[in-house]
Amino acid sequence: MKIIIIGAQAAGASAAAKAKRRDPNATIRIYEKSDIVSFGACGLPYFIGNHFGDENEMISRTPEQFAKDGIEIKTLHEVIAIDPKLKKITIRDIKSNNCFDDDYDKLLIAVGATPIIPPLENHQLENIFTLRNMYDGLAIKNALTNRQNSNIVVIGGGYIGLEITESLVALNKNVKLIQLDERVLVDAFDPELTQIIEETLKQHCDLHLQERVQGFEGDHKVTHVITNKAKYPADIVIIATGVKPNSELYKDLDLETLSNGAIVIDSYGKTNIADIYAAGDCVALYHRVSQSMTYIPLATGANKLGKVVGDNLAGGNNQFPGTLGTSALRVFDIEAGRTGLTEQQAIQAAIPYKTVIVKDKNHSNYVAGQTSVIAKLIYHAETRVLLGGQLAGGSGAALRTNSLATAIWANMKIDELAMMDFLYAPPFSRPWDILNIAGGIAK
Ligand SMILES: Cc1cc2nc3c(=O)[nH]c(=O)nc-3n(C[C@H](O)[C@H](O)[C@H](O)COP(=O)(O)OP(=O)(O)OC[C@H]3O[C@@H](n4cnc5c(N)ncnc54)[C@H](O)[C@@H]3O)c2cc1C
Q: SUPFAM superfamilies per the record (predicted)?
């Protein structure tokens, strides 16, 4: 069995490791166009914020460690064509610029995603960055070491925009966060939650909502950001306006995709082309609540689907159970987590729903550190089965989302939360946890 994998980060590396464990005799070769493998981009905002100094801490395994396990990784090799009929691929060796072919029994496309750069005038000026890979992180960190670079504009109020804002403020930079929509985290959280996050953001940075960046000014280096409302000085700009699948490689194949190029797969990770599988940020995942294929580019899905597909590449018969899009972030002193559908997503999915909102405290008042927490739960109007939930507040808010994810995964009804045996001890919760209360008062 000869397995070829394109891309050596979360999805590709997980798949390779699992495939080798299932079939130690399989030939497994990964082609990776960068010189870095098994990289955890999730650490980048904290690397930039000086939570740690060694960028190699974001790398799980080196090519040499993979080689010891019998997995060959060819870095600085870009796959430039796939021929599904002949079951071969064409590769360009980036160092020598030579091209050659390789064949496969099974192929995994794990080419990930790339930042979306809106059509902004002069976006190629120096000190304008996106944040995706280690070199982006190193370049931003290097630019930040110049103390004169004090005015930073972050474009985009999604997860990465907010996480990097927190890190930059901690470095004593003046941060302006510009968001096109009327609120931050618009795809992940409902307004009741984003309002709290925005209040916190406003205490630490200059938040501009409903403002459109049009371009940049500067000679070689950026000096100003131009929006539809004003012109702001900027020494560094970070564009964090979402990602799109790296579909260039496969766009001319007859692969079924979503409109953004995300590959549609079945529960085994197979595409509609024989012996070609896909995983990670280049695929659409099955959403367990909306029961539709959805683009949710997260490490959680990339690792899990990668593992399932790795097993199947080597002869297994494993199924990916789907996603709830469970995710969380910290924004200064607020934690926020979400899982399943938001109210907006329930509307889009045409699911009849009800909501319950509870404002409570994270734990007992006589233990230091008591803070407010808000929970919003969405449930089916007729069956009362949980559809989604979000929490925001102080310590303990984000991890409660995992309890909700478990309940949604198990198709539990909102009412079952009322008597759920959640833990109680004064430093962690109150005798009736916020999720107990939500279950108890849901109409
Ligand atoms: C700043 C930041 C913070 C994040 N935080 C979180 C978080 O807290 N939680 C979470 O769940 N997720 C988080 N994510 C998302 C997570 O990092 C991604 O979901 C994950 O990295 C996806 O892995 P992947 O293997 O699918 O793709 P990628 O990491 O994009 O890797 C794909 C690889 O394929 C290679 N490649 C592409 N085309 C070719 C080709 N033609 N030939 C050869 N190689 C090719 C690329 O060079 C790349 O190395 C974060 C992402 C970023 C950028």
A: FAD/NAD(P)-binding domain (SSF51905), FAD/NAD-linked reductases, dimerisation (C-terminal) domain (SSF55424)
